[in-house]
Description:
Blueprint: E1 3-14, E2 17-28, E3 32-36, H1 43-50, E4 58-63, E5 66-67, H2 73-77, E6 80-83, H3 95-100, H4 115-127, H5 143-156, E7 161-165, H6 173-190, E8 193-197, H7 201-207, E9 210-215, E10 218-223, H8 225-228, H9 231-238, E11 240-246, E12 253-260, H10 263-272
Parallel strand pairs: 3-8, 3-9, 6-7, 7-8
Antiparallel strand pairs: 1-2, 1-4, 4-5, 9-10, 11-12
Helix pairs in contact: 4-5, 5-6
Amino acid sequence: MDKAITVAALTVAYGAATALSAIDLEIPKGKVTVLAGPNGCGKSTLLRAIRRLHQPKSGEVRLGDLPISGLKEKELARHIGLLAQNPSAPDDMTVEELVRLGRYPHQSMLQPWSTADGEAIQAAMFGTGVSHLSDRRLGSLSGGQLQRVWIAMVLAQETDIICLDEPVNHLDMAHQIDCLDLVRRLNQEHGRTVVLVLHDLNLAARYADRLVFLKGGSVVAEGAPVELMSEQLIEDVFGISCRVITDPVHERPLCIPIRNSSPRFRAEQATQL
Length: 273
């Protein structure tokens, strides 16, 4: 497997609390990898550690064969773009002004702006379908439009690796599909390596080339969706009884939840009887 990122024995802690415990993981180049798992399992922490926003307690993250700890910030930002959960910007900022921020890693004091910067911005807005919104204020946009603009900002960085933390959070079903179709197109047409955090297991199975299940700060399973979407593994990781069938349209695994099967949930239910 051609590796874009290697995570080696990575441990991350918040004070005395361990968020990630000795994680080993390889992110394949040119593929869509989805991190999935229950709340608090370490998905977002792992994504942020890949972008060096968390200092590891031990272990390392490598970009190819190069430890990211040895890269300067702008150099790392030219390789890995990150769209965090619930990003914010002033409502009176225009679409183009926000997308321009993605060019920061490519600028210097001697050359703050170039023709290449302008071309990258126009290409990013065109690729995400927001060119016609360039002069609009962010506060006037719908949720789906705004999410596309944030993705355009990340694309303007022109990185080979794009990390997106819950990019469809708070979007309705139509805009979720619209956004993830866009991400898939960027991967397929431009060869971008994409690492996604998704809560919706069926969306994860539909769009992932590779799924990674986390639980309690550890990777418990990884592989193609057809391999990981088993009823027993889903119950072990997510604590729900379910049935897994094949989506008749996309021919991907589809999880149909039946009930919460976690011991804690059953104990809580018993106390209410």
